[in-house]
Amino acid sequence: MLCSRCRLLHRMLSSHSMREASSFTKRIKTLEDRESTVHEHVGQHKQRVQRVYVWGYAGTGALGQRSFITPSNPRQKPRSKQRHPHRLAYLDEIVLKTNALACGYGFTVFIGQRDSKPVAFGTGINTDSQLGFQEYPKKSGRILDYVIQPVGIDLPLENSETKLLQVACGRAHTVIVTDQEGCFTLGNNAYGQCGRGIVEKEIYGGSQTVNRVEVEGIIKQVVCGQDHSLFLMDDGRVFSCGIGSDGQTGLGHYKSEASLSLVGGDIEGEDIVHLSCKGDTVLAVSGKGDLFGWGNSEYDQLSSVSNNETQVNVPRHLPFSSVGHVVRSASAGAMCLLLNDKGDVYVWGYGLLGCGPQVEQSALPMQIPPTLFGKNELNPDAQVVDLQCGLYHFAALTSDGDLFTWGRNMRGALGLGTAKDQYFPYKVHVPAEVMEVRCGVDHMAAICRSFI
């Protein structure tokens, strides 16, 4: 038994201990809250800035990151594959505002402004001078067949106020469109894809030839297949040149064409608003929402109109009435994609179509579920707004600035951080809002905008 004095002392000590314990607990919680709280201080005049990200095969120099090929640290090994998006900071260093870009077969071309002047830069394979005449050091006679960091492409511009609007790249040629000086073509012209006369046994390595293509009217879009070029005019007409062995020029024959020629067939008189081609199959979308196709059909790309033939040499209307009003398309090597005005995506052809591992071929369009592109109850307004493709993979850009890729993951071209192929659309983790994306055979590049 405790006396009254001892009981009082015990209560006082217990109360003090409890207050001390409570105070200690509060201090610990406060410290934990401070550590878990992230403070971001953004200036009043902070603006979102442009950033360019690249990924895929680095061995050709197409990613433009010099350290991937020749690391500054001797302990580091060269990196041949970049499996997730990497910021190409060099473009910021040279203060290049990129307006557009294009990915060819192992090379990349950027166009934009530098010091308020129109400029073009290229990196990667240059064996056919698709990046222009590149000599290093200057006047040394040492011609660069590979460029591992973006370098300037000399264009014979007559007016410094001229703007470079578009760029497209094929297997080994480049087409650049301007606002007042027509368009320029560089690189391999073995089939007339540069829109100039074919010269037998012409040597393209180390060539200083830059061809100016004059075409009546305003060029709305330029597209390059493997070895042919397509020009969409603002009045809806389509011109083509280059190889025609699969009927990909759409001129009604299978010969090569060295001059820009008007494409007829079922698109004659139609207001064509969009073209797509990465290989030898061409898709065209009209203002009415109809879809047309020509070229290679070995894998059911055009089987709905080809009558079991493997080539279609003139544009034909594709009777896909169930897909709705078409606004965009993408034509890869053996598979095709379309987008309608409701944001729905349909796929057909042969390959990793995006409908799972059990579906690899279809002659008719199949819809890819919208949920695979981020549309759900929490984000009901998300929808696909643009489509792009390489030879073996697809890319879809959404209204939220998210990028989804699927298909054959050649050398990490999907940007998903793995070496595995992807059987359905999967989001690429780009640390910025994607504004524009382009696909090569085994690499990709994107123009983005920083979040803050």
TrEMBL record:
<dbReference type="GO" id="GO:0005743">
    <property type="term" value="C:mitochondrial inner membrane"/>
</dbReference>
<dbReference type="Pfam" id="PF00415">
    <property type="entry name" value="RCC1"/>
</dbReference>
<dbReference type="GO" id="GO:0070131">
    <property type="term" value="P:positive regulation of mitochondrial translation"/>
</dbReference>
<feature type="repeat" description="RCC1">
    <location>
        <begin position="401"/>
        <end position="450"/>
    </location>
</feature>
<feature type="repeat" description="RCC1">
    <location>
        <begin position="181"/>
        <end position="235"/>
    </location>
</feature>
<dbReference type="InterPro" id="IPR009091">
    <property type="entry name" value="RCC1/BLIP-II"/>
</dbReference>
<feature type="repeat" description="RCC1">
    <location>
        <begin position="343"/>
        <end position="400"/>
    </location>
</feature>
<dbReference type="InterPro" id="IPR053035">
    <property type="entry name" value="Mitochondrial_GEF_domain"/>
</dbReference>
<dbReference type="Pfam" id="PF13540">
    <property type="entry name" value="RCC1_2"/>
</dbReference>
<protein>
    <submittedName>
        <fullName>Uncharacterized protein</fullName>
    </submittedName>
</protein>
<feature type="repeat" description="RCC1">
    <location>
        <begin position="289"/>
        <end position="342"/>
    </location>
</feature>
<feature type="repeat" description="RCC1">
    <location>
        <begin position="50"/>
        <end position="114"/>
    </location>
</feature>
<dbReference type="GO" id="GO:0019843">
    <property type="term" value="F:rRNA binding"/>
</dbReference>
<feature type="repeat" description="RCC1">
    <location>
        <begin position="116"/>
        <end position="180"/>
    </location>
</feature>
<dbReference type="GO" id="GO:0005085">
    <property type="term" value="F:guanyl-nucleotide exchange factor activity"/>
</dbReference>
<dbReference type="InterPro" id="IPR000408">
    <property type="entry name" value="Reg_chr_condens"/>
</dbReference>
